[in-house]
Structure formats: C-alpha cells, structure tokens
Amino acid sequence: MSAATDHSLFAHGSGLRRRRRVNRAVELSSTVAALLAVAVLLIVVGSVLLKGLGALSLHFLTTPTALFGETGGGISNAIIGTAIIVAIAAAIAIPIGLLVAIYTTEFAPPRIAHPVRFVLDVLNGVPTIVTGIFVYGLIVVPQGNQSGYAASVALAIVMLPIVARTAQEVLELVPLTLKEAANALGIAHWRTTVRVTIPTAAGGLLTGALLAVARVAGETAPLLLLCSIFAPGNLTDPSQGLASIPIFIFQASESPSPTAHTEAWAAALILIAFVLLLNVVARVFYARSRQRMEG
Amino acid sequence: MPETRSHYQDELEKLEASALGGLELVNAALERTAEAVEHQDVELAQIVIADDDRIDGRYLEVHQALITLLATQSPVATDLRLISALLHVLKNVERMGDQCVNVCKVIPLSGNEPPADEEMVETILAMARQTRTLIVQAKRAFEERDVEMARDLVRQDDVVDDLNRECFRMALEIGDDADRREWAMTMLLAARAIERIGDNAVDIGEQVAFVVTGLFREFEDASHPVQ
Amino acid sequence: MSKIAEQARQLSSQQVPAGTARPQVPRRDRGNVELAGLNAWYGANHAVKGIDLGFDAGLVTAIIGPSGCGKSTMVRCINRMHEEIAGARAEGHVRLDGIDLYDPAIDVVAVRRHVGMVFQKPNPFPTMSVLDNVTAGLRLTDAGKGEIEDRGREALVEAGLWEEVSGRLKSPGAGLSGGQQQRLCIARALAVEPEVLLMDEPCSALDPVATLRIEELIGELKKRVTIVIVTHNMQQAARVADTTAFMLGGELVEVGPTERLFTNPDNERTEQYVTGKFG
Predict the structure, then answer these.
(1) DSSP A114-175
(2) Domain boundaries, position A133
(3) pTM score of the predicted model
(4) Which residues of C touch B78 (CB under 8 A)?
(5) FRET partner for C222 with CA separation of 20 to 30 A, picked from A133, B155, C32, C51?
(6) Are residues A221 and A186 in the same domain?
(7) A160 with A283, same domain?
(8) pLDDT tens digits, residue range C37-70?
(9) Domain-wise residue ranges, chain B
(10) What is the ipTM of this complex?
C-alpha cells in the first residue's frame, strides 16, 4: 500500500466531528461568559464615566463641599476625610492582620491555627452594617458623637480578615525548601521567619494590604452609622465626624438638584478610579512576588 | 521479584551462549584435526584452516557486543564479572582455534608416506580425545557455574600433559633415525599445540571460579606444581 | 631460589580479590559519625529500623536503596531535621566525635552548625544576593564572628564557584544557573565550617555536566568535611563514594568499600538491587 492511500489511518471519523462540535460549543459559551463579566465592569465604569465626566474638574477636586445642600462645591474635604479614615484603619488592621497571619502559618500548632482561620473567615462574612452597629455601641454611644476614629475602627474590623487571609495564603506559598535550608544552617525559627520567609513573601503581603484598602475605601454602611454627621469646617480631626466620599455620594444623590446628581457620579468616578488603580498596583506586586518564589 | 531489565538479561544470556558455542566450534575443529592427523589428510587439514575464520568471526562479533553492553548498561557485580569472564573465554576460544590451525599446518610437512611411528600417532590421537573431553567439561562447568567441575579440569589436563611427555620421550627414541627424525619433530609440534588447547580449557575453568566467587586464582600453572 | 624469584613467587601466590580497597587516605581526626540503634517514625510508620552505621572522617559514604527505603529519613536524623516534621520522632544515638547529638542537653540548633545539609532542589534565598546567600549561615546565627565576608569568599572558592561569580557577588542568588545555584548552596553550607556535610540527592535536579562538576567537587571536599550522600543513581555512588551502604525497608542490608559492593557484594539482596533486578 502506498503512502497516499495509507492516510485512511488518519481519516476523519464521526467521533472527530462530534468532538469538534462539542469543543466549539464549550469554547463559545465560556468566551461569552467571560465577555459578559467584562461587559458588566465596562458598563459600570462606562456609565459612571459618562455621567460624571461633566462635573469633573480641578475645581471639583480642590474645593470643599458647598454648604447647606447648595451646589457648585467640590469634594476636597471628602477626599481628605476618606484618606484619613482609611489610613487610620489601615494602620490598625494591616499590622495586626500580618502578625496574625505570621503567627498562624509559622508558629501556631494546627489546633490553634485552624480555629483562628475559621474565625477570620466568619469575620470576613459579617455584613458591614452589623460591624457598624457594633462599633456604634462601642465607641459612638459612650463618646456621644460620631467620629472618624469610630469609622476607622469599623473599617479596620472589615479589613482585618482580608489582610490576614491573603497574607496567610502568600506565606504558605513560600517554598518549604527555603525554610528547610535556613533550618539546616542552624538559623533559629523566628529569624528564618523574619529574614527569609517574610521578605520572600513581601510582594504578596503588600498585595493583600492594597486589596484590603481598595475594598474598604468605598465601604458605606459603617460610615452611614458612624461618620455621616460632620461639621463642614472639620477637615482633619478624626475625633469628630469627617467628610467622606461614599457619604458625599449618598447625600448628593438624595438631593433634588440634577447638578448634585452629576456631582455624585463624579465622586463615584473618583472612587472607582482609586480602587482600580490600587488593584492594578496590587497585581503588579503579586506577579513579581510569584516570580521570585518560583524562579 | 519482578524482572526489570529483562532485555538486558536476555542479551547477556544470548552472548554467553554464543561465546560458549565457540567452544563447540573448537571441539568440532579438533575432531577434524585429529582425523586429519590419523589419515594424513591434507585436504581435511586445509578445510580446518579455512574454517578457523568462523571461530575468529565469532570472537569479533561477541567481543563487540560485550563491549557495547559494558558501555550502555553499566553492569555491576555478577553481571560485570560474567562479562569480564566471557571476554577471557572468547580469547581462549580464539587461541584454541589457532592451535588447531597450527596442528593442521604441520600435517603436510609429515609427507604422504604412512606415519613413521604408529605409537606416536596413537598417543597424539589420545591427547586429542582427552582434550575434547576437557573442552566439553569446561563448557558445562561454565554453563552450570560448577566450580568443582572446573577445578577437576586440572586433573583432566594432567592426563594430556602426561601424554605430551610420552610423545617427547618417543620422539627422543626415534631421534637417531635420520629418516624419521624430521617426522617426529613435526609430530612433537602437533602434540604441543594440542597440549596448549588443554591449558586454555583450564583457563576457562579459572574464569568459572571468578564468576562464582569473585576471586581470581590460578588453579595451577608452571610456577605452581600441583601439591 | 634467588631472593627475587622468592618474592615473585610470594606475590603470585596471593589471591587477587576483585575490588581491592583504595589506598588509605590519611584520616582527619574530626568528623567521625556513629549511628547506634537509630530508629525513626512518621506517626505509626516505622521508617528507620535499628541502624548501626559509622561514617569515617575524610571519606565519602553513599547511601543507596529503592524509593521509600528510609535513606533520606535516616540522613535527616543525623542533623535532627527529621523531628521538625509534625508527628515524626527519632530515637537512638548519633555520635559526632563521641558527642551524642541526641543527648537532651544538646541544643538542636547548634547541631546544625556542625552537620550541614544540601538538598535535592537548589534553594538559594531569593531575596538575597550571592554573597549574602553564602554568608547567611554566619550572619543569622551566632556562628558569625570576625570577617564574615572573607569567610564567604573562601567558601565560594571551596565550592568551585568563585571564578563564575566573583564579578557579581551582589546580584540575586536566584539568577544563577541550576548547577551554579547548587554550588552556591554548597558554599553556603560550608561557610559555617561544619564537620559533616549531608547531601540528599544533590544532583537529581541538574543536567549531566553540572552533575559531574559537583561529583568532582565532592572528591575535593572530602578532605575538609565528612560527606554522606544519598543517591538513587548507583553509577554516581560508584563514582563518588569510598564506602557504600545499601538500605532496604528501613534496615541496613550491607555496607562496605564501594568497589566490593559493586563487583562482589556479600548479600543476595544487594546483588539483586545493584544489578537492577528490582528497585
């Protein structure tokens, strides 16, 4: 038999055709699903962009909100307020979250590590309004007024499990063989953790922190309870109420004025831009960290 | 235990059979050689000489295959000793073949007349028969890895050595007879060649001991008279 | 008989055993290891059963055996890394120059400064430079005194890596090739000047050329440290080791000079393993 006729061995069978059809169907549906997901994001960002661009200007960013529900102001005080609240929350949550993660992955015996992990997961699922009420009873009631601190504490509680769980995942990715190598050199366990494990995981730890910040920057429910009443003159004192972007959006959207609505969209645009930026930066750090651990 | 490396084991077994098969070729050559001596058959002698190419060919073929096995399979322990022993055995086989050729080359020199001394011819034929027994025993000892049988080759070889001394004595007796002297000298060469074949068989026996025990020891040679 | 003939006769009457031992190297007096009654468990699994084995100073000993025979476990008992695994424990005695490393009074961490280890997959610290990697054992323990960097450079020379990295001591350790990384790990282990160096299949992850370089390096290093190398590659054991020990099912089956083990082993199971009939 010549080579030409021998290709009956490679001829298309009916099985091949059916497989191809199934293949194409699955490919198609997954592509559509992916496009849908991306489309949703694009629609959200797109509509915010379209509706808010009109009010966006340098004036908008650098002028404090107009008084007594008037329009023509800006969100500079809201930006500063959000920045302060989130910064304080981060200063509380990130160190504690990292330490908890380091403790559970490096030092705790399994019978402690597992319950802690479980508790963190539960905490992650607590609705933020509940956290807000809790902090209200804890801080606002005794203090007698709403404050930036109360908001920061609530946000810190929301951030903590995110920071801790991400940090845990990243620390566990540090190859065992690195820790073994340090161990075999006679380096004490805590020193290995500080000088080898943490530096190796550093990129991932940073990512976790950034993602937690991004998540919490727009968290509204606690702010409603804890920091929605503020004196317009108070720009930076967290012991009193502070302006914040989510509250601005909420209040502006309740106003009857269409200009206020546009301002609300613009503020939303700022918020989304900030969140997206944080996410991108976090991704970059994560990629570098992965490369380091696998290379 | 499950067999791993079975292809390699098969190859090794085949090569052993091939190398030992060379002994059968030598045995046949010796038989024909003895016949040629008995009947002063020059044509038969020529055939033996030509046939030695087969023995040489066997040597080259198996030798090459063993070297390849060494290079590709990294044999150790018993396998390694076996391959080393087979390389020696091949050399012995090749030498034995050459000794048969030596005998056959000598036959035409003894002329076309009837042998000058029947007794001497008989002795040589007896040597050939005994040496063939040695060859068969050496082959069996190797196949069965029987060290005792291998050691016994020394005793068998002593018979050949004794017969060789007999030939020498007979040649001396003929010595004064000018007509038969030359013939006797050539016959002595033939006897010596057959005696060397016997020694080669004993060497094969020593290789048997090496494979089995890992020790190499001369059973007996010129510097160690048997106790 | 003349004197020469007499000597010749004596020589030829001696047996010539296959696998004569290599000429004796003058032994260091430090770095002798003795395992006595060593047992190790993973939970209920008895992985190492009653090992009595010695490693002489100045020599390389290879441990061979099929997967799961306990060779890595046994070696990790020597620097007490086995007990770091959850649920694992070890009993028995490991004596280094007479001192029992399992004595309760001995600090586990200190043990590891005298018994170094190199692992199967090269594992330089990714966040440290080449020089920092080598000196890690000195900087991060109290073994480091005096000129740490000089000791680091020496270690790189000892590991045969100096020429290749002298120009980039500050570049990341993980940027080297596989073979270079492994030599870096060897330098790192040598820098703390241990008496013993354990190597757990150090060449498994490397290409053949890198492997041969490290084998040559082992031949030079043994003057300085006692080397115990676990390997599943028998040809490597044959090339590199003075003494070879064969383990099976957690037990020591046979130990002896390498040449003897590979030309004429005593034990039938050893014979079957080295000729590849199982494992």
Answers:
(1) HHHHHHHHHHHHS-HHHHHHHHIIIIIHHHSS--HHHHHHHHHHHHHHHHHHHHHHHHHHS-
(2) 58-294
(3) 0.80
(4) 271, 275
(5) C51
(6) yes
(7) yes
(8) 999 999 999 999 999 999 999 999 999 999 889 9
(9) 6-213
(10) 0.83
